[in-house]
Structure formats: C-alpha cells, structure tokens
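task queued by scheduler; priority normal; single chain, no ligands, no partner chains; default sampling; output format set to structure tokens
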Amino acid sequence: MLTKEKIMEFLKANVAEVRFTKSDGTERLMKCTLKEDLVVAYSKKTDRTKEANNDIVPVFDVEKNEWRSFRVDSVQSISLWGGQE
C-alpha cells in the first residue's frame, strides 16, 4: 500500500511518472520529483492559509516547472521516469 511517506521518500531520490485520477475524474500522468537539486523554492501566490492535509502530496512538476499536488488515494501507479540521467 502506498503511503504519503513512501511516495515522498521515492520522489526525494527520483524523478517519477505518477498516474493518478484528478478530482474531476480525468486521468493524469505527471513527471514530478522532490529532488532538492531539481525543484524551485515554493512561492505562495495568496495570503490564504490552509490546514495541513496528510492525504495530499505536494510535488514539483518537471514539465510545467511548477508545484502541483495529488491525493494519495488517487494514485494508480508510480514509476521511475525513463528520461532520468
């Protein structure tokens, strides 16, 4: 069973392809990571504050060059991205 902790540990060491179901029901394949040498610092776009949600995984989308997130329970698959060096 995938947990947020396992997903984040994997993404801290790799760039991965994560296939998940978006909240609107469509499927998405995202190339993402949490590797410190590949992510850019997160900059807040609003003054709004949110309560922490342990079901959400924040990730850096390497194709869009932006921070995104997905729900742990929406993940269909996660694998190493083939374009890694």
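post-processing summary
- The mean pLDDT is 90.
- Residues 4-13 form the longest helix (10 residues).
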